[in-house]
Amino acid sequence: MGTLIKQELYKLTHKKGTWIAIGIMVVLQIIPALVQKADSEFFQLSSLISNDYLGGGLYLFIMIASAASIIAMEFQYGTIKQLLYRQYYRSQVFISKLIVIFMQLVVLKVISTIMTFTLTALLFPSFDWDQKIEGSQTLLQLYFLGMGGNVLVTVFLLSVVILIATLLKTNAAAITSGFIGYFVSMAASSVLLLLINKWHWLRFNPFSMLMTSSQIISPDMSQATLMSTPLMITLTFVYTILFTFIAYFSFRKRSV
Amino acid sequence: MANLLSVQQLDKSFGNRRVLHGVNFEVAAGHIVALVGPNGAGKSTIMKAVLGLIPTDGGHLTIDSQPVSITSHQALAHVGALIEYPGIYPFLTGKQHLELFADKENRDTNMTQIVEALGMTSYIDHKAKQYSLGMKQKLGIAQALVNHPKLVILDEPMNGLDPQAVKDLRDYIRKMADQGTSFLISSHILSELEKLADDVLILNHGKIVQQSSMGELVASGGTSYVITTADDASAKTALMAAGLQLVPAEKIMIRQQNEKTLNQVLQTLVNANIEITDVVKVQHDLEESFLDMVNTPTTKEDK
Ligand SMILES: Nc1ncnc2c1ncn2[C@@H]1O[C@H](COP(=O)(O)OP(=O)(O)OP(=O)(O)O)[C@@H](O)[C@H]1O
Ligand SMILES: [Mg+2]
Questions:
Q1: Among all ligands shown, which has an atom nearest to the Cα of B155?
Q2: Which of A87, A251, B129, B172 could form a disulfide with B90 if both were Cys (CB 3.0 to 4.6 A apart)?
Q3: Separation CA A213–CA A216 (nearest Å)
Q4: Is B67 helix (H, G, I), strand (E, B) or coil?
């Protein structure tokens, strides 16, 4: 298993795209920070910071692309046979890929967070992380709470992307559906909430789980989603595991 | 000698289509076994089954006495393979491909050895996306061989290789086999296999129709004589009248049945007063035996 993880990391780190993506993410954090420094009215500083200077948000899209390609590239490059004929169980091959994807997610999140704190310390040294925004929580607490919710929803979304990549075996299809799924459900979340209001059972549908991160920061949303925050978090986990299992079962007996 | 690979009663269907029918064969340690058969006969399918890449519908596969299936792969620890076409990561160099797949022990020596043996030194540090067809093929073969596996499965390894590369590969395979590695190789270039293989499996429509050593197969193809005369038409009539079996061909071709065949033929012609201008002895090679084997039923119906 260690060998498999090392091999996956080897492939990932030898792709130029991996590094370019990190570079772009960092640059897209620096630019808004400098703009804000030049014109303090341009963004609202606290929201700029809690959004990781905008660029940090890119990690979601990097991860969608990366998760899709870690599975689909083996089919596209025809390397899947070499990968699977060896002494390892297919489950090990599959899990090693999941682990590496998760490692990449953590690394990106750590980089964007470090950038956020560094940029804030350098450019806006007087920024008060302890200020209270709404209720009793400080900005720092909300920042980490938001991050937790965001990672949770990202992992959920990635499970869908991995499922599609495993079923369709093509990069483009998985990436496109990841992006479209994300944007459409963001755009349509108000419609979804209306529908949930009409047919209550709809609240358990997987698309609702894309709102988990919003509800974690603004618990009042539970009135619209008709689910408590703990329930939503649990369901997000359940769906993630479910989709991952379906992906695994389709991968397990696949003829290559 | 112990059999390294054993395939027993292997059945495989894709949907309703039965592709393999109770395939049985063995590969002995240190032997090079050729798997030949027409397009679509099921060669790649057998190889994929042996590598646990596809589910099978019945039969028993073992490597080194350990069972192999899509869900049990332990026995494949010492197996190297190239199936159908090489899988190449375009963003890695040739060397990085080998690094990725090479076992830790003796990694550098193993890598250098195979790269030199296949003549890949000049481009091994280039990105694989710039490789030509043959360069990719060599890289795929190198990946299969780099860890000195006990069993190597190569599906049409000569694809796209130039004559020098074919020779280099043949020499290297021979060397590895002499050191105890077993090979199962499919190819359509029968003249190559004839130089290389110890044993031959002929597969047709998902069944093994012939299994023997290369020497036996070539010998069984037998000897024929092609005879040219001043008057071929009368010669044919005379020979048939004498009860001699002619091979259906434009020229006069006679298969040797026993030591007396040639003498009989010549005598018949001399007695019929037909001038003999040339006699050529033809030793059947693998290609002809192969064609006979896979075409037998249709040839009989035709004539
Ligand atoms: N994934 C698949 N789905 C359906 N049928 C398949 C599949 N793979 C192979 N077949 C069928 O199985 C038969 C054997 O195919 P296989 O690839 O083993 O032939 P082959 O002997 O390797 O031929 P070739 O010399 O052309 O490589 C063919 O008739 C083919 O149509
Ligand atoms: Mg084939």
A1: 2
A2: B129
A3: 5
A4: strand
Query: Helix, strand, or coil here: A204?
Result: helix
Name which of B57, B84, B79 is nearest B5 in CA terms. Answer: B79
Question: Which residues in B208-217 are b (16+ Cβ under 10 Å) and which e?
Answer: bebbeebeeb
CB contact, 8 Å: B76 with chain A? yes
Atom 9 of ligand 1 has which residue's CA nearest to it? B45
Ligand 1 centroid, distance to B19 Cα (angstroms): 8
Domain segments of chain A as ranges: 2-253
Alpha carbons A171 and A67: distance in angstroms, whole number? 9
> What is the number of the ligand closest to the CA of B48?
1
Closest CA to A162 of A246, A91, A83: A246
Round to whole Å and give the CA distance between A154 and B58. Answer: 43
High-pLDDT (> 70) share of chain A, %: 100
Instruction: Tell me which residue in B51, B73, B100 faces A7 most closely, judged by beta carbons.
Output: B100
The H helix count followed by the E strand count for chain B is 10, 13
| pLDDT less than 70: residues of chain B | 1-2, 219-222, 296-303
Query: What's the pLDDT at B301?
Result: 36
> Quick one: A13 exposed, middle or buried, by C-beta within 10 A (0-12, 13-18, 19+)?
exposed
Strands B223-229 and B276-283, by their bridges, are: antiparallel
Residues of B in Cβ contact (< 8 Å) with A89: 71, 73
Ligand 2 center–CA A185 separation, angstroms? 45
SS3 B149: coil
Residues of chain A in contact with residue B143, where contact means CB-CB under 8 angstroms, are 82
Q: Do B90 and A77 touch (CB under 8 A)?
A: yes
- Count CB atoms within 10 A of the CB of residue B105: 9
Domains of chain B: 3-218 (3.40.50.300), 223-283 (3.30.70.100)
* pLDDT class of A43 with cuts at 50, 70, 90: confident
What's the gap in Å between B4 CA and the centre of ligand 2? Answer: 22
| pLDDT at residue B220, as a whole number | 67
A6 vs B: CB within 8 A: no
Cα gap B142→B122, rounded to integer Å:
15
ipTM value: 0.85
Structure tokens at B183: 């090979």
Which of B19, B48, B187, B193 to probe ligand 1 with, by most ligand atoms within 8 A of CB?
B19
Expressed in percent and rounded to 5, the helix, strand and coil fractions of chain B are 40, 30, 30
Is residue B243 left, alpha or beta, with left meaning phi > 0 and alpha meaning psi from -120 to 50?
left
pTM of the model as a whole? 0.85
CA distance A206 to A240: 9
User: Which residues hold their Cβ within 5 A of ligand 2, which is an ion?
Assistant: B 44
